Amino acid sequence: MKSESHPQPLLQTLPELTAPPAWRRLAFVSDLHLGPEAPVTTAGFLRWLRGEALAADALFILGDLFEAWVGDDLLDAAPPDAHHQVCAALAAYAASGHAVRVMHGNRDFLLQQGFARRCGAPLLPDPCVLVLAGQRILLTHGDALCISDAPYLQWRALCRSADWQARFLAQPLQARIEQAATMRAQSRAAQSRMDTWSDADPAEAARWLQAANSTWMIHGHTHRPREHWDHGQLRQVLSDWDLDAPAGGAAHRAQALWLHAGGTTLAAERRPAA
Ligand SMILES: [Mn+2]
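Above: inputs. Below: predicted complex with manganese (II) ion.
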């Protein structure tokens, strides 16, 4: 096991994605947790993709698009369900000229090339740097910034290993679906025992930014949407989506972060997505 205080080795050079000049409007979302168990949120995302999202030249999904993903062969299984609907909608969105990039979250870390090809949505490494309008923006899901949760980081290292993934994916689809449901139930039980849900560590985030030669980070995962300004560094935390939560309650929300690039200027704006 790697040192718990530095779960992610700092890379000398982080993977970089340079935005083409045609990308003027970019939308960032994360933590939608789509799937058959979230029909209202899933419908809301499909509506958003066919509507407001069409204003984006590029859509970045920074992890946990799905509540669970047990393997790309899910898309070959019948009958089609919410996973198929979302993939078909992403494919149509990409085919109509919008770039889509998808990063793994802690729920859907098993998204692979089969998904990416079918959806026209290449996978993004976590973390990576988006170079846009002269700015270097560090993109990450955010779970690896929650360094106070040592048991989670141990699990993360295990389930991201090629060995574990090969063994998991070698099981029949139905067995994987059941196993994933059990793991989610255990994770919910562990969360309900905790007073506070682990948050991103500000010092760790600052360290990542420094290593990336960046002063601007966008991440999700924590379900605590807000802007953090610290020593000239900006950390924007994306909102989760939960339209299945009771309407009128604080949990009932869906939001995208938009970046508008004009020459060398960049403006950020949060907009409700439902
Ligand atoms: Mn997450």
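The domain at 16-272 is CATH 3.60.21.10 (Purple Acid Phosphatase; chain A, domain 2).
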